[in-house]
Amino acid sequence: MLASGKSTLVHALAQHWLGSPILAFDEYAQHATWPSNMQKWLQDGADPEQVSNRRLHDDLAALIDGREALHPLTGITLAPAPLVLLEDPFGRTRPDIAAWIDYVLFIDIPTDVSIIRLVQRTLALSATRSSRTAAATSDARAAERIDEVLQWLNHYLAHRDMYTSPQLIEPIRDSSDVVLSGDGAPSTVKEDAVFHIEQWMKAGT
After folding, report:
1. For residues 74 and 83, what is the distance between their CA atoms, to the nearest angstrom?
2. Fewest C-beta in 10 Å: which of 65, 67, 84, 129?
3. Model-level pTM?
4. Which CA distances in Å does 21 have to 24, 150, 167, 184?
5. How many CB atoms lie within 10 A of CB 171?
6. Residues whose CB falls within 8 Å of the CB of residue 157, separated by 6 or more in sequence, listed in order
7. Do 145 and 43 touch, CB atoms closer than 8 A?
8. Strand, coil or helix: what is 178?
9. Cα(65)–Cα(135) distance, rounded to whole angstroms?
10. Are 86 and 64 in contact (CB under 8 A)?
11. Which CATH architecture has domain 6-204?
12. Helix or strand or coil: residue 185?
């Protein structure tokens, strides 16, 4: 789910398991292939098979196979590790990467709560200034973040069906291994995620 805390969680997990590479669907956006008519796609049942990302697939396969990959935006080398973290809004429902995914966490949070938290974070940032000399820089950054939120909200309104469609969300949730509540603090969500991942790791040894 959009703005559910996926990025916050996956980066917290990368800090917990140092050395674990992160692959994020949004950072591979230019390599993603979507249906030409999104509204019709949703009306027809939102089949994840019609969404693909070959570069993401290849990098994920490489890391799991013990080979290096290059970050699509920075070009930084991603080294293979026992735990590879994938942030993908489709979970394991996309056939092009399903075979490479061992364990899926789904963050369950109401859309309105996600939007409120996004706006709260931006307003909090806008109200924070480190010093008078940094005021101009702070104001510029605050304006930039507010513009980002406005763009996000406009995008959400234009594609609301995509983010609330049961045909899309329910299969992702149902095919996940664990459903985490996103209502709590990020630290609580991280603790729950670490617990479940460690239990899964122990079961596989």
Report:
1. 21
2. 65
3. 0.81
4. 10, 31, 31, 26
5. 18
6. none
7. no
8. strand
9. 49
10. no
11. 3-Layer(aba) Sandwich (3.40)
12. coil
CA–CA separation, 23 and 87 (whole Å): 6
Q: Which residue has the tokens 């364990």?
A: 103
pLDDT tens, residue order, the chain (205 aa) = 555 678 889 999 999 999 999 999 999 999 999 999 888 888 888 899 999 999 999 999 999 999 999 999 999 999 999 999 999 989 999 999 999 999 999 999 877 777 777 777 666 655 554 444 455 566 777 777 778 778 878 877 777 777 777 888 899 999 999 999 988 888 999 999 999 999 999 998 6
Structure tokens, 106: 């789904």
